[in-house]
Amino acid sequence: MTGLPAPAFDLDEPGTILFTARRAYEGRALNRFALSLRLAENRERFLADPRGYAGGYHLRPDEVDMVEARDWTGLLLAGGHVLALLKVAAALGGGLWDIGAHTAGVTRDELIASCPRRVAAVPGAG
Amino acid sequence: MAVVVGGIGISHTPSMGVEFDRGTSNPAGFSPAWQPWFDGSRRAAELLEELRPDHLVVVYNDHLNSFDLDNYPTLAIGVGGSFAQADEGWGTRPLPDLPGDVEWGIWLTEYLVEREFDLTVSQDLAVDHGIFSWLPYLLTPPWTLTVTPIAVNMVRHPFPTPRRMCGLGRAIRAGVEARPGDDRVVVVATGGMSHQISGARFGMANTALDEYFLERLPDHLDELVRIPVAEWMRLGGTDAAELTLWFAMRAALSAAAARVYAFHTFPQITGCGALVLVEPGALEEVPA
Q: Chain B contacts of A17, Cβ < 8 Å?
């Protein structure tokens, strides 16, 4: 049994959190922090002192809270790009399934069991 | 003059790469989800070999692994003798660097800018799963041919338009055909088919859309180009926008180019397809 409804054919939140130009601008510190974790040595520094490391990138206190809480949905809404947040998830020993599960509102195992979430429509007929 | 002998459209995903490493090192082979992709890519690999390319021009998208949002290029070309594999956060995979060709890179840069494609020039480009995930399925290392990567923004809106991708493809073809020598070039465009990797629609899988795309692209490019990017995103998931990159490949080939192979499967999160188009006479030149 899956608790997930079929994905809708729209681009509205919370189904889709678009990375608009405005959101990209608002998330610039967050994404700078997240992408710094592409370097292995930075991942080590982050894990040794997550709050201190994140603070060094001028994240707001509520953004640091969301990082600590692994609130991926909140971070996306705050302007984090999913591919940038993926670096944070990777540093914390997780991955895309963790971000996906949080944004879909289910557990990681439930999401894995639900994918692929099949729909069918083509242009002009959907 | 150099010549475009064929084109390949192919999907990329991080797991495609990871599953290649597992599937080829594990005595039990590929996982059930990925065995169909490995099997389906065999014919594409054969065709690529039969096309005997000297050079690949690859239109792909970076996933915030080489570029970052402080300076995000809409279109960028890699110029270098080799392109390292980017560490995407879990360390790199056991693969050699991507071989480049500085002369090809400079040639295409100069030609494309002359054609008003004002590319960002990346002289130290690290390449991610956008190329490294599918490449070993098609070509076994050590890689002897060379690659020019052209990265297209699929990260932050606004994305370039589908029409722009067609123009890019036509300009690439013209640039290849203007180049002295007799290099054989295959133009590759890579992007996932239907998929969405964030939001409550995570995991959206529209194989009907993927089949429609593979069926229409060879001979109905004009029809597909009129469809707005947002429509691909609405129907196939936001990351299906990457399908518009495939337009560059189709537009880089002549109208007479023929579909010789199409395949798709949906392993888990991303629709995975492969399409091989061949220019007239390109395969017949192969000695029996």
A: 198-199
Catalytic residue list of B: 129, 195
Q: Is the pLDDT of residue B285 over 70?
A: no
Query: What long-range pairs does A95-102 form, CB within 8 A, spacing at least 24?
Result: A96/B14, A96/B197, A96/B269, A98/A70, A98/A72, A99/A72, A99/B197, A99/B198, A100/B197, A100/B198, A100/B202, A100/B203, A101/B202, A102/A70, A102/A71, A102/A72, A102/A73
**Is residue B4 within 8 Å of residue B280, measured between CB atoms?**
no
Query: How far is B67 from B51, CA to CA, in rounded Å?
Result: 32
The label of the residue with tokens 């389906």 reads B40
pTM greater than 0.95 (yes/no) = yes
Complex ipTM: 0.95
Q: Pairing mode, if any, of strands B98-99 and B82-83?
A: antiparallel
Instruction: State mean pLDDT over B106-118.
Output: 97
> Is the separation of the CB atoms in B38 and B274 below 8 Å?
no
Q: Provide residues of B within 8 Å CB-CB of chain A.
A: 14, 63-65, 68-70, 86-91, 155-158, 196-209, 212, 227, 230-235, 237-238, 266, 268-269
Share of chain A above pLDDT 90, in %: 94
| Facing A35 at nearest CB: one of B68, B196, B212 | B68
Contact B231 A84 (CB under 8 A): no
Q: Is B95 exposed, middle or buried (0-12, 13-18, 19+ CB in 10 A)?
A: middle
**Torsions phi, psi for A97 (to 5 deg):** -60, -35
